[in-house]
From TrEMBL:
Residues 31-357 form the Aminotransferase class I/classII large domain. It holds the Pfam family Aminotran_1_2. It comes from the Archaea. It comes from Natronobacterium gregoryi (strain ATCC 43098 / DSM 3393 / CCM 3738 / CIP 104747 / IAM 13177 / JCM 8860 / NBRC 102187 / NCIMB 2189 / SP2). The keyword Amino-acid biosynthesis applies. Keywords: Amino-acid biosynthesis, Aminotransferase, Histidine biosynthesis, Pyridoxal phosphate, Transferase. This is Histidinol-phosphate aminotransferase. Belongs to the class-II pyridoxal-phosphate-dependent aminotransferase family. Histidinol-phosphate aminotransferase subfamily. Transmembrane segments: none annotated. GO terms for biological process: L-histidine biosynthetic process. The gene is hisC. InterPro entries: Aminotrans_II_pyridoxalP_BS (IPR001917), Aminotransferase_I/II_large (IPR004839), HisP_aminotrans (IPR005861), HistidinolP_aminotransfase (IPR050106), PyrdxlP-dep_Trfase (IPR015424), PyrdxlP-dep_Trfase_major (IPR015421), PyrdxlP-dep_Trfase_small (IPR015422).
Length: 378
């Protein structure tokens, strides 16, 4: 007995953790700073941490009430109906629900390259095909309607990422709406706003609801997560906001109790912790600016809680940096073998990362100059 043919599927490659790296290098975990997974440097919302501790004794119960309460709270936040909020086990869970609701076997999904691997993974899990549109490094990963539509060919789902991972670029709402207008009636435009809190941009929920001068649309959905600004990556909590015409679909495609009791209670506490979110956003803004001003290489403008950096040989630089206690993301898996993605850390973490990477780049440049002149060690 064997599983079905999975040869077209790729495994998701996550950023490396401190414990994993410390074991591999036989080092003390306290020596390392991890800036590889776009996690919140301030940890979870303190209110959420309290809620998790208080809820632990109720972990034997299914989260029916908590699930409904959190759905209502999110719906109120976005001024949509409860039925338009699809809670999920992380943003990737919401992606799966949309795939289930939309894709028939053989339908194609259009995804950005580089981009989040799980868009395509989910499509393939649901027997769909995957096609790509390119966000060009030479064009600073600029996002607009023409870039997407040049590659569009009747695809059932089109994914946009704003802010984009790993570059941090965003796409204006008018471009999102233009894509929706110029694609087929059967096409769903999904705007992934996992890093939306860090960007000074209006959400694509506006055209779903017909607000801010847009006509209401039934062909746009928005993804959001509690993993980043709220610091709840470990409890896995995300959601989609969908058109109100989709009210009946969620109950037919979601798993029973799509988010756990602990996750729902943490989300209920975190969603009102504006102080924690504001602190997190300000830290990311300061960190991005510091890296742009002080890294001695090209740093792309970003509206996420990370920056993309051109280092030449990403694998080598990431390895050398890791040896010195700073874990960053080699973007080879994104198809960018000359780039690193660096998560925005605290002031101390950011300064350490910049100093370390600059040292590594300087040493590699000296090494290259020595090789060019034929100089070797005695």
């Amino acid at each position: 007995m064997q599983p079905r043919d999975l040869s077209d599927h790729v495994a998701y490659e996550a950023g490396r953790g401190i414990e994993e790296v410390a074991r591999e290098l036989d080092r003390d975990p306290e020596e390392f700073v991890k800036l590889a997974s776009n996690e919140n440097p301030h940890g979870p919302s303190p209110a959420a941490a309290v809620a998790i501790r208080e809820t632990a004794s109720n972990a034997s119960s299914y989260p029916k009430a908590a699930h409904a309460d959190l759905t209502t709270e999110i719906a109120d936040r976005w001024a949509v109906a409860d039925e338009q909020v699809w809670l999920a086990n992380g943003g990737d869970g919401a992606i799966d629900y949309l795939s289930r609701a939309v894709l028939e076997p053989g339908d194609s999904t259009l995804v950005p390259s580089p981009g989040f691997a799980y868009y395509g993974m989910s499509a393939r899990f649901h027997h769909g095909e995957v096609r790509e549109y390119e966000l060009s490094k030479d064009d600073d990963f600029s996002q607009d309607a023409e870039t997407v539509l040049e590659s569009y060919d009747g695809d059932r789902i089109v994914y946009l990422t704003s802010p984009h991972n790993p570059s941090g670029s965003t796409i204006p709402l008018k471009e999102v709406v233009e894509i929706a207008e110029r694609t087929d009636e059967k096409t769903l435009v999904v705007v992934d706003e996992a890093y939306g809190e860090f960007a000074d941009r209006k959400s694509a929920v506006a055209p779903i609801e017909g607000r801010d001068g847009f006509e209401a649309r039934d062909d746009i959905a928005v993804l959001r997560t509690f993993s980043k600004a709220y610091g709840l990556a470990g409890v896995r909590l995300g959601y989609a906001v969908v058109p109100d015409e989709w009210a009946d679909a969620y109950a037919r495609v979601n798993t029973p109790f799509a988010a756990s009791e602990l996750a729902c209670r943490a989300g209920l506490a975190a969603i009102d912790d504006d102080e924690h979110v504001q602190r997190t956003v300000e830290t990311a803004s300061d960190s991005r600016a510091y890296m742009r001003d002080n890294l001695e290489t090209h740093v792309w403008e970003s509206e996420g809680n990370f920056v993309l950096v051109d280092v030449g040989d990403a694998e080598r630089v990431a390895e050398e940096t890791q040896e010195r206690g700073v874990i960053v993301r080699d973007c080879t898996s994104f198809g960018l073998p000359d780039c690193l993605r660096i998560t925005c850390g605290t002031e101390t973490e950011t300064e350490r990362a910049v100093e370390t990477i600059n040292e590594v780049l300087a040493e590699l440049e000296l090494e290259a100059d020595g090789n060019d002149t034929g100089v070797t060690d005695a």
